[in-house]
Design brief:
Pfam families: HTH_1, LysR_substrate. Belongs to the LysR transcriptional regulatory family. By secondary structure, the protein is of the alpha/beta class. The protein is 42% helix and 22% strand. The strands form three sheets. Strands 3, 4, 5, 6, 9, 10 and 11 form a seven-stranded mixed beta sheet that branches. It has a two-stranded antiparallel ribbon with strand order 1-2. Helix 1 packs across helix 2. The radius of gyration is 26 Å and the shape is globular.
Length: 300
């Protein structure tokens, strides 16, 4: 399937008349008809109902048309953005992140870099595993996650260790305590992210398993905000990094844990052996200040 097939299909779907569509496409009607037939054959579905009155989209055609328009809109937007980038001579700098690190100082790094006239910043929400793949493919330049990944092409730096907290529904029996994991294990657990794995979900489960504790997973969620919403609804409790307490949400109480050593690292991933570009040097300098602020307690 080629891009032109999608353009042809969209025009025919808009006109519902092969002759008019061919005229707008500046081509003859028979070749256009063959192209549409080939597209239907490749998809394995009839996209148009053909009758003496003309053409009409089938349910499959309506579905394909809706999604094809989204693809074409996205393509047009991407092409326009690429042209603007080429004219401006700006450098693309990609940052990947897991959501739970975006409640601390990472937004400050993003804000600083966005103020650079020569930088086009691209953000991507990715798990740590996905970040490693994105670094190796060149999609991103920096990654912020919470898992150690052993890969010869990627270097990881532990920026700091962050205490884990329990997010409890308001009014929970443990809301005014400093509970242990053993106490938390008695309550249903909301686990996130459900997919893709491995992720913070596996770190959470590992903490209980290593202490010989069994937990009941009441619900899994892909998004942090969804997990917090489920907790607020009373479906269970969850463990979150300390940064997340900055999220003010009705019906949620955050408490520290009594067990020692319950931490989640914030890890920065970069391509190994690559000479830092001027933008990377600036990002590293900003990051060094932010991390020092965090370690010295000047920023939670």
């Amino acid at each position: 399937m080629e891009l032109r097939h999608l353009r042809y299909f969209c025009m025919v779907a808009e006109e519902l008349n092969l002759t008019r569509a061919a005229a707008k496409l500046h081509m003859a009607q028979p070749p256009l008809s063959r192209q549409i037939k080939q597209l239907e054959s490749e998809i394995g579905a009839e996209l148009f109902e053909r009758s003496a009155r003309g053409l009409r989209l089938t349910p499959a055609g309506q579905f394909f048309h809706e999604h094809t328009l989204q693809i074409m809109d996205k393509l047009d937007t991407t092409v326009a953005a690429t042209q603007r980038l080429a004219r401006s001579k700006r450098v693309i700098f990609g940052i990947g992140f897991v959501p739970s690190v975006f409640y601390g100082q990472l937004p400050l790094l993003v804000r600083e870099l966005r103020q650079k006239d020569n930088v086009e910043l691209v953000l991507a929400e990715l798990t740590t595993v996905q970040q490693v793949k994105a670094l190796k493919s060149g999609r991103i330049d920096l990654g912020f996650g919470r898992m150690r990944i052993d890969d010869p092409d990627v270097e990881q730096e532990n920026l700091f260790d962050e205490p884990l907290m329990a997010a409890l529904p308001e009014g929970h029996p443990l809301a005014d305590t400093v509970p242990t994991l053993a106490q938390l294990a008695e309550y249903p657990l909301v686990l996130f992210p459900a997919q893709p794995r491995p992720s913070l979900a596996d770190i959470t489960l590992g903490l209980f398993r290593r202490r010989g504790l069994k937990v009941t997973v009441a619900q899994e969620a892909n998004e942090l905000q969804t997990a917090l919403g489920l907790v607020a609804s009373g479906l269970g409790i969850t463990l979150v990094p300390e940064q997340v307490k900055r999220v003010r949400r009705d019906g949620i109480v955050y408490v520290y844990l009594a067990d020692p050593g319950l931490i989640s690292p914030v890890i920065c991933s970069r391509r190994k052996g690559e000479a830092p570009s001027p933008i990377m040097q600036e990002a590293n300098a900003i990051l060094e200040v932010l991390v020092e602020n965090r370690r010295s307690g000047r920023y939670p």
